[in-house]
Each structure stands twice: as structure tokens, then as C-alpha cells.
TrEMBL record:
GO terms for molecular function: ATP binding. The lineage of its organism: Bacteria, Bacillati, Actinomycetota, Actinomycetes, Kitasatosporales. Keywords: ATP-binding, Cell membrane, Membrane, Nucleotide-binding, Transport. This is Amino acid ABC transporter ATP-binding protein. It is a peripheral membrane protein. Its main location: membrane. It comes from the Bacteria.
Length: 271
């Protein structure tokens, strides 16, 4: 498609009409003071789709992820995840804000992997992964620890379950953070520059875990500057600039044949 934005209400090609979009962002605006950081974002992410968000520093990539997760509240527009509106519920003809508790429950169904891992320093790798399913009452402590072992195995860290974050490399810490995100069986996982805090030799191990998730059909939204990785893993690339979706499409289109001068300019700097 060459249209720069998904038009609301237009069926997405290839979408299963019965299944709700994994993520639907509609008409989202976000200001910080006078700074218009998200300027009318429309985006539909289908279940199982891997979306990579590219864009220059300050273009609003992190803010967009934070709005999807309701860590930031947009001043206009709305977001749904798995068909469920985020942060609000229907109330008569209008919408009413959800309680903080209900928002936390929603957030627990959306995985978030941060640039700086954000592990609990006083918990082992195993307990970092097991903590949330216990805290949210989804699993008993024993079942959560069993799941955590499986997930640590899956990210190649079965032998480091007892290690504390400070005893792990950055790449290992980020893999624990990915296992932790998986522990809540989220409908979608958001990654905000998951490898940009890593030494170059540790980037590959983290990207390889993300590639496995992509191949396994998990819905992923990834902000990254790793263009080679984006090309390999993405079903769709969304290029953001000045808080707008300037261009989107399959990697071959956006990376090799970008239609917008801003995309070309950005790629000429990072490639
Ligand atoms: P990106 O992730 O693409 O680099 P961000 O979403 O972090 O961009 O930020 C977009 C713009 O919003 C930047 O100019 C940034 O300085 C500003 N910004 C981000 N967070 C805040 C905040 N909490 N308060 C004020 N300005 C912010
Ligand atoms: Mg950012």
C-alpha cells in the first residue's frame, strides 16, 4: 500500500475480519506543553504481525509505545489492544476513565521491554521472571517458578536462573527481561530500542531471541535502529517523523524504495 496512513474503518488487507486487531491506534495526539509530540497517529497491527518502528531521535517513537501501554495518556484519540480500549471504558454514549487498578490489569497483558532492562536488582533471574504472574494472582508461586524456568530455557539462560542482574551481562539481562515479558503471556510485546544500551558483541544474542519470538508468531512492535535486523524480522516498517507516520510498508518497500524524502534522508544516515 502506498497510502501513508491506515484509513480508519477501511478493512486491513489480509486481516481476519473476526479477530480484533492486536493493536489499534486511532487519531492519537500527545502534547508535552506546547510540544506536539504525536500528531495524529493511526496504526493497525494485526495478530502475529511484526512491526518495526523507525525514525529519528525525538520523532515520538517511545511516546507512541508508552501511549499504547498507557504509561502516557493521549490528549486525543484512542488505543485498543486485542479489541479492548485502553485506559477507558464505554459509559453511556461517552467514555469513562478506568481505575488505576483496571489499567494495571490491562498493562499486564502488554509486554514491554525497555532499553535499560529495568530488572529488579534484588531478585534473581528466576524471581524476576516469576514475580509478575504471582503479583497479579495468575499463578501460584510454584507454578510461576516452573514457568520462569521454561522461559529462561527458551532465552538460553536455563543455567543462570539463580544469578542476580549484576552478575549477568547486558545481553543476558535483556534476555531475562524478555522472559519476564513473556511470563504474563501478553497479546503483544513492545520493545523500545532493546539493544541500544548493549556492547556491540552482545546485540546478536538479544536480536536472535527476538527473531525466535517473531518466528513463533508472537505479535511484536519493535523500535530499533538495527536496520539489518528490521529487514529480516519485520512484516511492516513504520517510519515516524515529527510525531507522524510518514511512510509504512514491507521492508523491501520502505528500506529499498522509500517514497518520502524524510525516509530517504533518515536511511542515508543510518545505513
Ligand atoms: P524518540 O523515542 O523517537 O526519540 P520520544 O518519544 O522519546 O522520541 O520523544 C519525543 C519528543 O517528546 C522529544 O522531543 C522529547 O524531548 C519529548 N518528550 C518525551 N517525553 C517527554 C516528557 N515526559 N516531558 C516532556 N517532553 C518529553
Ligand atoms: Mg525513544
Amino acid at each position: 500500500m502506498s497510502t501513508p496512513l491506515d484509513t480508519p474503518g477501511t478493512p486491513v488487507p489480509g486481516a481476519q475480519s473476526a479477530a480484533p486487531a492486536a493493536v489499534e491506534v486511532h487519531g492519537v495526539h500527545k502534547w508535552y506543553g506546547a510540544h506536539h509530540v504525536l500528531d495524529g497517529i493511526d496504526l493497525t497491527i494485526r495478530p502475529g504481525e511484526v512491526t518495526v518502528i523507525l525514525g529519528p531521535s525525538g520523532s515520538g517513537k517511545s511516546t507512541l509505545l508508552r501511549v499504547i501501554n498507557h504509561l502516557e495518556k493521549p490528549e486525543a484519540g484512542h488505543v485498543s489492544v486485542g479489541g479492548e480500549p485502553i485506559g477507558v471504558r464505554r459509559h453511556g454514549k461517552g467514555l469513562k476513565e478506568l481505575s488505576e487498578r483496571a489499567i494495571l490489569a490491562q498493562r499486564s497483558r502488554i509486554g514491554f521491554v525497555f532499553q535499560n532492562f529495568n530488572l529488579f536488582p534484588h531478585l534473581t533471574a528466576l524471581d524476576n521472571v516469576a514475580a509478575a504472574p504471582v503479583a497479579t494472582g495468575r499463578l501460584s508461586r510454584g507454578a510461576a517458578r516452573e514457568l520462569a524456568r521454561e522461559l529462561l530455557d527458551r532465552v538460553g539462560l536455563g543455567d543462570r536462573a539463580g544469578a542476580y542482574p549484576r552478575q549477568l551481562s547486558g545481553g543476558q539481562q535483556q534476555r531475562v527481561a524478555i522472559a519476564r515479558a513473556l511470563a504474563l503471556r501478553p497479546g503483544v510485546i513492545l520493545f523500545d530500542e532493546p539493544t541500544s544500551a548493549l556492547d556491540p558483541e552482545l546485540v546478536g544474542e538479544v536480536l536472535s531471541v527476538i527473531k525466535d519470538l517473531a518466528a513463533g508468531g508472537t505479535t511484536l512492535v519493535i523500535v530499533t535502529h538495527e536496520i539489518g535486523f528490521a529487514r529480516e524480522v519485520a512484516d511492516r516498517i513504520v517510519f515516524l517523523d515529527g510525531g507522524r507516520v510518514v511512510e509504512q510498508g514491507p521492508p523491501a518497500q520502505v528500506l529499498d524504495n522509500p517514497s518520502h524524502p524524510r525516509t530517504r534522508d533518515f536511511l542515508s544516515k543510518v545505513l
